[in-house]
Design brief:
Keywords: Membrane, Transmembrane, Transmembrane helix. It is a multi-pass membrane protein. This is Methylamine utilization protein MauE. The chain is mainly alpha-helical. It has seven helices and no strands. The longest helix is centred in the middle third of the chain and has 27 residues. The model has no long low-confidence stretch (mean pLDDT 89).
């Protein structure tokens, strides 16, 4: 449970920081939403604010001790991830090449790996919600610490997925 809380929590925390703490992060995110044409232009800013608020809600709910808040945090994460996935799928189907700015500035255009990432995170959040709701809390503090560390590292790797894929992809004339 602790590992999944840390994994999902750090992914949403890094997404939140990329949009709010990085100079131009929110503006870039808003422009990417506008380019993706997932909602009419008049609703782009309210949607961007709602997404940032939702991400903050996930982080807070997962950070607060307690079974009910953890389940609520996981449930909110699942809802957001499914909405993100639907929006990205719609944008990909329309041929959008815009970077998603999920974690701040990015030059990587949307791709199927973003859908897979979001679906995998939604499954992990569902697993976290289920375990949190039915299982006993983590037993041994050392085990919880190891799980937390693993969750933090995996969450960071998920946030850096675009850079990791670029690092291991073949060189093309455009990338040289």
């Amino acid at each position: 449970m602790t590992g999944l809380k840390c994994l999902i929590g750090v992914v949403f925390l890094l997404a939140l920081c990329g949009k709010t703490l990085v100079r131009g992060g929110f503006g870039g995110f808003e422009r990417s939403l506008r380019s993706l044409v997932v909602v009419p232009r008049a609703y782009v800013r309210p949607l961007a604010v709602l997404i940032v608020a939702g991400e903050a809600g996930v982080v807070l709910a997962l950070a607060v001790p307690g079974r009910a808040t953890a389940v609520a945090g996981f449930a909110l994460a699942i809802a957001l991830l499914l909405v993100f996935t639907a929006g990205l799928a719609r944008a990909l189907r329309s041929g959008a090449q815009t970077p998603c700015h999920c974690f701040g500035a990015s030059t990587t255009p949307l791709g199927p790996h973003h859908l897979l990432r979001n679906l995998l995170l939604a499954v992990l959040a569902l697993l976290g919600a289920t375990i949190t709701a039915v299982a006993a809390p983590d037993g041994h503090p050392a085990g919880a610490l190891v799980a937390a560390a693993a969750g933090l590292v995996l969450g960071g790797l998920v946030a850096a997925l675009d850079e990791l894929l670029a690092l291991f992809s073949p060189m093309t004339p455009e990338r040289r």
